[in-house]
């Protein structure tokens, strides 16, 4: 059973296409997995629980309970159904409207297409054009980024959210009006509520639910097909792995991670599943984050290592009274960072994944026996990418460069042989949207290829060494830029490090390090290189040939260091195009 | 992909039937859900974690880590594969061998059939005969209960576990020998380990995994068909709902609940999924349970209200330093019990379900706003059966006695109209084994019928009033025996109460109460009836006409009061046949 009840169906007419009637033959003991139901359920169990805390674009504090969040998502869904929109783009920061869209669009049987507002306008135009959206929900701050798209698609309307709706009963703009229109429409047509939507019942759990895009540093962004089943199992996995089901309490989840990025690693669903509070955030603002950590009782947030590094270095940093679980991913973290975080009562849950795996798919499980080891060893073990998630199949590390049609072969589990991390099972995305060739390559040999190089330790945990293209080959030795960076940041004056290869007539390649200094500190390159030579962890062939101190490292919107920009800098002997 | 790799397959020959080859067409992004993988995974991540703590039949303390538990389960699986056993009965108390059988039998592609060793021998014979087992794993203590079955099935072998295997390298009996035979067989035939078994990969998640039987108080026990998918989703739901993923630690789960009962509510899988310790227990022994609670750092256990009542009344009871989460179900608990438990730092997680729903399918979610209410009100709200589980669809309460072929109609959500609680979705069993007619009745109208009468409160929570046949109709008023029992145990001298109808010439029916007294207390029936008349919660028509004090109430093996026995006692004016 799925789709609206009979009265509503006749009103909506053709809007619900084939496959959305009662014709399904699902047996009684099975319902199709879909995470949209988590919101309807939360509002039914605990309508007064705080669902949203947010400081709006005009600086007002907004608090909404689960009843209100669910009502608003439901209103949006009926608006979309009534108007016939099925493929909805969204360009917004971490606002309540984004959350409502995740639930509203999918409850209307539609597919959500989030885009990264930090991309250049051409890429945003490309994404919404390629994904064939028929409506775009846009935060007023980013409307100008759609000028190019509008020119080519004058018939695709924009639904603007002003993110100023802080007063009861006051409509702040078109997005609010749409929500109200939908609620009125439902009320006047039988008041079917959630039962008229795709929430508890969807037609097929393997259907598409959303198309987030990869960040596309080197090529066009690729659309990644998420399914109801995949999103459900990833979201439930994240509850267990990040401990969102707080014993004797509720999680308060701070939205430092962009929602557009891999659907916020499915946390929009995970948090509602446990009736937690979404503490929304328009932008990364370290003083504000520390204020929220100290005053709002935050229990969880997710962030890339770079965000955590800057958070720990922030003047507001001080040890929190309550432990906070911080799910860390996006690029390999250093042992040094984990030690700093733990000292502040920020406890790393180290995960690893990619847009193609709904975000996290591995976890560095912390073993009690590590407590007996020296502190630095413990944090180094925590910085490994670890094992497959509860709801995934095991990871593998396979020999690279094998013919695509041959079965993958594992590398030795010796912590030395380098191979590619690959994934399998339910929290792998279905493929790339409208790109069967790229999908075939993604799943070559029946496993999902990460493109990341790793070693496999005897204990079964994997540790990333580098992106395949970032490895430095010097005198026949492989140098992991990631490993070298984690050694360089041990220097007391260094905040962050980015390492790339520069050519060397004798060794073929040698590492060059770009460094940023901690506030109030200075780094002298020659002295730094001398320091490197005296570190036992840094082998002679790994010592950087060149060191350059820069005010800031170039990063992707998800906090990864842009190695391609560093390579350009190194090649041309100057910095540009950041 | 499923089934053993090629070399092993050729050795095993015909043992893996069709459907267990590589011919499946599951796409790359999907793996079939099955909880057996949780053990293989736990051993891979944390081989040294304590998996089992057990006091053996000969009184020795046994501790096994995850590597050992997994190895033993794997050995059993290869033994079964080699010998060709596919449908395996088990008759045992909560022993390590039971746990190993749950994993070993299913990893071998077999189906497990647990029987309740407290049933009379005829019923045990019936169960194993009806389920067509080809091997029975039996704890030595219960071997005599299989005499009847053996007579009719001389060719079905027994595999006896002596539960005495406490010494490294020492074989304690046939069960241990079988494990060793299996491990040797695998080693000599390619050492495929878990990859040769049905663990990470099964052919079809909707396939049968186990056939637990109902307790069958009024008719023959019925076999309930569990699937891989259902067991997986129930087990993951239980992790979240009972909080087994202890933050910064590990769960230590005490096996007070029988493993044979609804496959231990899927907790054999849930606990391994989070690498918790199974603290096994041969029998309910209150001094021992208190010793384990105090000395072994137990974090969780599951038990029926009757077990919790006796636990709270035990002389060893004292407030624990650590909070323990106690998942309570099997019969409706009283507010009084929840208050007593909380005072001892035993925190109830109130769930409700039946064998046909893999155990728990609803939870009484505790709302923070209840803390503002009088204590007794709070505990009364906690004693409601609540809402559907995270991994279930919502419960409904429907008008009873509707034609089977008509769609169910909900009762009013007014906390007054009585109806039947029904379930839907993934944690409903597939049906009754070899009984299509009973399966059709179970799912009449497309919902799973509980047979329990409940009211539906305006907040969406359900509260059980009675089994349909236990309701007392007095002067046209419905009296819930459950509700009346919870009022009677408020009397300071009463330990437990069981209420049934007796006929009354004027009112049609009137309640009769059977009571047990707390240790060292006495109850005088006439004085007790007078007390009832002065309780504001007990309406005049609810006051028992007769009260009888008994040394013990008759109970099923799962702790439910046997109302049919009480009715017999009431009818004949004497007690017998307990």
TrEMBL record, chains A, B:
The keyword tRNA-binding does not apply. PROSITE patterns: AMP_BINDING (PS00455). GO terms for molecular function: ligase activity. It comes from the Eukaryota. Residues 484-560 form the AMP-binding enzyme C-terminal domain. InterPro entries: AMP-bd_C, AMP-bd_C_sf, AMP-binding_CS, AMP-dep_synth/lig_dom, ANL_N_sf. Keywords: Fatty acid metabolism, Ligase, Lipid metabolism. It holds the Pfam family AMP-binding_C. SUPFAM superfamilies: Acetyl-CoA synthetase-like. Residues 39-433 form the AMP-dependent synthetase/ligase domain. The keyword NAD does not apply. GO terms for biological process: fatty acid metabolic process. Belongs to the ATP-dependent AMP-binding enzyme family. This is Uncharacterized protein. The lineage of its organism: Eukaryota, Fungi, Dikarya, Ascomycota, Pezizomycotina.
């Amino acid at each position: 059973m799925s789709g609206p009840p009979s009265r509503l169906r006749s009103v909506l007419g053709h809007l619900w296409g084939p496959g959305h009637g009662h014709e399904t033959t699902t047996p009684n003991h099975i319902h199709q997995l879909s995470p949209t139901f988590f919101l309807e359920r939360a509002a039914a169990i605990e309508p007064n629980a705080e669902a949203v805390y947010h400081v709006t674009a005009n600086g007002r504090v907004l608090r909404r309970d689960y009843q209100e969040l669910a009502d608003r998502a439901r209103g949006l869904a009926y608006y979309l159904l009534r108007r016939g929109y099925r493929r909805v783009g969204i360009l917004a920061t971490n606002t309540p409207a984004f959350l409502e869209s995740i639930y509203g669009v999918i409850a209307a049987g539609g597919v959500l297409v989030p885009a990264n507002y930090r991309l250049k306008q051409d890429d945003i135009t490309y994404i919404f054009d390629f994904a064939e959206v028929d409506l775009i929900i846009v935060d007023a701050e980013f409307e100008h980024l759609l000028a190019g798209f509008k020119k080519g698609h004058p018939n695709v309307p924009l639904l603007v959210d002003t993110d100023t709706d802080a007063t009861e009963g006051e409509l702040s703009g078109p997005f609010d009006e749409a929500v109200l229109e939908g609620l009125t429409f439902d009320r006047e047509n039988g008041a079917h509520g959630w039962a008229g939507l795709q929430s508890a019942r969807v037609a097929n759990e393997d259907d598409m639910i959303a198309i987030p895009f990869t960040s596309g540093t080197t090529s066009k962004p690729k659309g990644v097909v998420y399914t109801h089943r995949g999103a459900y199992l990833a979201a439930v996995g994240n509850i267990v792995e990040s401990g969102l089901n707080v014993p004797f309490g509720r999680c308060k989840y701070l939205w430092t991670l962009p929602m557009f990025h891999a659907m916020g690693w499915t946390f929009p669903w995970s948090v509602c599943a446990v009736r937690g509070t979404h503490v929304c955030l328009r932008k990364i603002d370290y003083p504000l984050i520390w204020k929220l950590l100290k005053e709002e009782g935050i229990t969880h947030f997710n962030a890339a290592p770079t965000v955590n590094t800057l958070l720990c270095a922030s003047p507001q940093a001080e040890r929190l009274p309550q432990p906070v679980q911080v799910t860390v991913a996006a690029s390999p973290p250093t042992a040094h960072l984990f030690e700093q975080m733990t000292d502040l009562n920020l406890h790393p849950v180290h995960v690893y994944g990619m847009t193609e795996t709904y975000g996290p798919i591995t976890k560095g499980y912390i073993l009690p026996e590590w407590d007996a080891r020296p502190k630095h060893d413990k944090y180094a073990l925590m910085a490994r990418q670890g094992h497959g998630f509860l709801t995934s199949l095991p990871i593998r590390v396979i020999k690279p460069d094998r013919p695509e049609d041959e079965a993958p072969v594992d590398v030795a589990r010796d912590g030395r042989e380098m191979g590619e991390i690959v994934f399998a099972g339910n929290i792998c995305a279905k493929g790339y949207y409208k790109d069967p060739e790229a999908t075939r390559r993604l799943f070559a040999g029946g496993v999902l290829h990460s493109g990341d190089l790793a070693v496999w330790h005897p204990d079964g945990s994997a540790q990333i060494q580098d992106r395949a293209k970032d490895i430095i080959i010097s005198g026949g030795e492989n140098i992991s830029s990631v490993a070298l960076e984690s050694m360089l940041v041990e220097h007391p004056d260094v905040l962050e490090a980015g390492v790339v290869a520069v050519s060397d007539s004798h060794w073929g390649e040698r590492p060059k390090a770009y460094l940023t200094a901690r506030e109030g500190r200075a780094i002298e390159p020659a002295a730094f290189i001398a320091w490197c030579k005296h570190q036992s962890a840094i082998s002679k062939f790994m010592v950087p040939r060149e060191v350059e101190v820069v005010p800031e490292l170039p990063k992707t919107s998800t906090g990864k260091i842009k190695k391609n920009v560093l390579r350009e800098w190194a090649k041309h002997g100057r910095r540009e195009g950041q």
